[in-house]
Amino acid sequence: MSDPLLQLTGVHAGYGDAAVLDEVSFSMEEGEALALLGRNGMGKTTLLATLMGHTLMRSGSIRLRGRAVERLAPHRRPAAGLGWVPQERDIFPSLTVEENLTIAGRPGRWDLRRVYALFPRLEERRANLGTQLSGGEQQMLAIGRALMLNPVLMLLDEPLEGLAPVIVEELSRAIRMMVEGDGLAIILVEQHAHIALGLTRNAIVLERGRIVHRAPSAALMEDHATLERYVGMRVGARAA
C-alpha cells in the first residue's frame, strides 16, 4: 500500500509561547483537493504556515510522500514538493511578471507556456513590474509563481480575498483546472465556504486549533447547520 501524499500526526504548533494547533491529524491522497474551513483565528493559516516551517512545532510529525519534512528548513520545503500562496502574495515588486515567474522555476510540467495559458493576463503583462499589477493580477502571479515550482501539493491561503466577482470567477476556474485538469493536490483556505467546497473533494473544519469536523465537500455543502456553527454567516446568508 502506497503512502498518502500528506500525513499529519499529532501536530502541536504555534508562535513563541502561544499554542495554536492542538493534536491535528489528517491525511490526503495524491491529487486530492481539500478545503480547510473555520472562522477567523481558528488556526487555518497557522496550519499552512506549519506545513511550510514558519511556526514553532512542539510535537507531531509531517510526512510528504512518506518523507518526514517537519525538521526541514522553510527554504527547503518547496524543493520537497510544497508550493505556497500566502495571503500577502509576496511577489517581488521590482521584478517584471516574467522575472517573478522564472526566478522560481523548477523542471516539470508547469513552465511559462502553461502558466500563461492558465492566466493569459500575465502574458499580456509579462513586462510589467509587480507594482504595476492590479490585486487580481498579483494573485494570478502569486499562483503562477508557485506553479513554476512544480509542487506536488499547493497551499492556497484565501486566494480570493478582497477581489472583484469577475476575478473570483476567473481564479476559481483556474484552481479547478489545476485540480481537475492537471491532477494537482491542493489545500484551500477560503472564507467563502461555498466556493471552497465547490472546488474540492473533501473538507476539514478547524475550531480553536482542533479538527472538529471532516466530510466530503458535497455533503458538507448541504449541511447548513454545521456550516452555520463552525463557519458563520456568509454560508448562512447564502443558504437562507
Write the layout of secondary structure elements.
Elements: E1 6-15, E2 18-28, E3 33-37, H1 44-51, E4 56-64, E5 67-68, H2 77-80, E6 82-85, H3 97-102, H4 112-118, H5 120-124, H6 135-148, E7 153-157, H7 165-181, E8 185-189, H8 193-199, E9 202-207, E10 210-216, H9 217-222, H10 224-230, H11 233-239
Parallel strand pairs: 3-8, 3-9, 6-7, 7-8
Antiparallel strand pairs: 1-2, 1-4, 4-5, 9-10
Helix pairs in contact: 4-6
- How many helical elements? 11
CATH classification class of the domain at 1-81 and 154-162 and 183-240: Alpha Beta
- Portion of residues in helices? 25-40%
Which value, in Å, is the CA radius of gyration? 17 Å
Strand percentage: 25-35%
Q: Give me the CATH architecture of the domain at 1-81 and 154-162 and 183-240, please.
A: 3-Layer(aba) Sandwich
> What's the total count of β strands?
10
Output the strand order for the largest sheet: 6-7-8-3-9-10
CATH superfamily of the domain at 1-81 and 154-162 and 183-240: P-loop containing nucleotide triphosphate hydrolases
The CA-CA distance between the termini, in Å, is 45 Å
